[in-house]
Amino acid sequence: MQLTPVEATLIGTTAGALASFSSTLLIQRATLARERENRIWERRATVYEDALTSVNRGERFRAGVLETGELPEVPAQRGREVEADLVLARLRIYGSRRVVKAHLRTIAAMTQWISSFAAWKEQAAHGRTPVRDPAQDPLWAAVLREAERAQSADLAFVEIIQTEIQTDIQADETAQPLLSRLLWWRRPS
Predict the structure, then answer these.
(1) pTM for the predicted model, two decimal places
(2) What is the pLDDT of residue 164?
(3) Largest CB tally within 10 Å, which of 5, 19, 22, 43?
C-alpha cells in the first residue's frame, strides 16, 4: 500500500500538531507547578519573617527586663498574644516540622523565663526584697539561667530558619545548598 502525498501530509501534520500540543501541555503544567511552589515559598518567607520579628522582639523585651528588673508597660499586650498565635498558626501551615518544633521551644523557654521572673518578683509579697545579684538571690540566678536557655532557644530557631532558607532539606533531614538543585545537570557522573 502506497501513501498518497495528501495522506502523508495529513499524517505529518497530525504528528506535528500532537507533538506541539503535548509539549505545550507539559510546559504549562511545569509552569503552573513552579508558580504554585513560588507562591507557597513567598507565604513561607513572610511567616518566617514574622516569626523572626517575634523572636527579636522577645529578645529585646528580655534584655530590657534583665537590665532594669522591671516589666515595661505594654498597653497592647493582648494584641501581641493574638499576633503570636497567628504566627504559630501560619508556621504550622507553611513551615516545616523542624521550624514549628523550634518555634515551640522558643515559646516554652520564654514562658519558663517569665515564670522564673514572676517568682523572683513575688518574693516581695513574702517580705523578702528581690535582689538582682545571683550570688545573693537564688531566684535571680534562676532568672538568669532561664534567660540563657531562652536565648539559646532563640538562636537555635534563627539557625534552623537560616538553614531552611539557604538549603534544601531532604527527607532524611540532610541539607543541600539550593544551588545544587539548579546545577544538577552540570555535575559529572
Answers:
(1) 0.74
(2) 87
(3) 43
